[in-house]
Amino acid sequence: MAFAGAVIGAIIGEVAAYRLPVNPAAAIASGALSFALVGVLASATALAASGRRLRWWPANILAAVLIAWSALDVLGKRTTSPFTLLADIAFWPITFQAFALISIVVVAVVVWLGLSRIGDLSIEHALRRAGLVAQLRFAVTLQDVRTVVLLRRQLSQENARLRPWIRIGRSKKKSFIPPTWKRDWQSYLRFPLPRLLRMAMFGVIAGLSLGALWRGTIPMIIVAGLALYLVAYDASEPTAQEVDHPTRWESFPEAPGVLILQHVAAAFVVMTFICAIVAASALILVPFAVVWKLALIMFVPVALAAAVSAMISTAQGAPNMAGLAGLGPDVMGWVMIARLVIPPTITVIALLPLLSAGSDPNAINTTKVGNATVYSLFAVGGAILYLRTRKPKHL
């Protein structure tokens, strides 16, 4: 974790050196140190919590307190929480503050707490987690996204609620509401609280990324697109249930692709709620007059593109390695890359019209944004046609 964090921090430091008047070597070193400490802290925290058999609710409460503390630091422009102290190390090339050295002491204390109770780890639980991680790595190698998601939920013990948030009863009379729509919402209403909070968190990340995009950091459009894509993957859970049960899927008296397309409506509605969170989060960095003008234009295409792109990734299932092997290694490599890259790219394409909005809050070019949105809908239309051709896969 420390090595991975150092590599990521060094890359971010090098990119920042191109935009900020700082020494590139100092920016790379500070970024690597800051992110390496974050990696060490993450591993040590997991070790300390596992050694003390900490239950999920005090761990989540502690995490929420630390995140809220850090958020208050950001809003109040202070540096008091452990996370903001670690982040301050990355800014040493701009302003050096020795107070940030306290974060190194905090990391050392957490490491000591983790190592002091390492003997209390449950061997059985550790073996189970190791087995799940081994399966997870194998699924990642095969680019089987659905299996990766299911294994990650097992690792985090993220199970559906036994009781829905709101119970949808059976209609006594014949209803005009499609059964697929009702089943989709029955699935959403059993989402556990951590999953809902994660979806909201990714919505906030997307909103802040789009705010940074409007302020001139163009690469943040990729971060926003990936965040929306990850949220949409949870929103496409009803589609995943169809894919997980191919015999049931093909038993319906309709074309398989038509049944998949019936799930788009509910996923689209969920993504509109997420887009509302995105717009509210963007207000931190963007004036209200800019946000509401662009939101009116972008809500529908972005929500639809995110929902459809995640459904493509879900519906395509695991790759047919036997069939791909006949294409040769060169073509097979490109096909595997396309399977992985094209779905999130559709979401990013839907966000591209924002680049034509301009940076003047008093002269937002809504006409140009609206015209560019029409072109992004072609990608969404192609994705819908692809979903129309999907069929069940049997092992």
TrEMBL record:
The keyword Iron-sulfur does not apply. Keywords: Membrane, Transmembrane, Transmembrane helix. This is Unannotated protein. Signal peptide: none annotated. The chain crosses the membrane at residues 27-49, 56-72, 92-115, 220-236, 257-284, 290-312, 333-357, 369-387. It comes from freshwater metagenome.
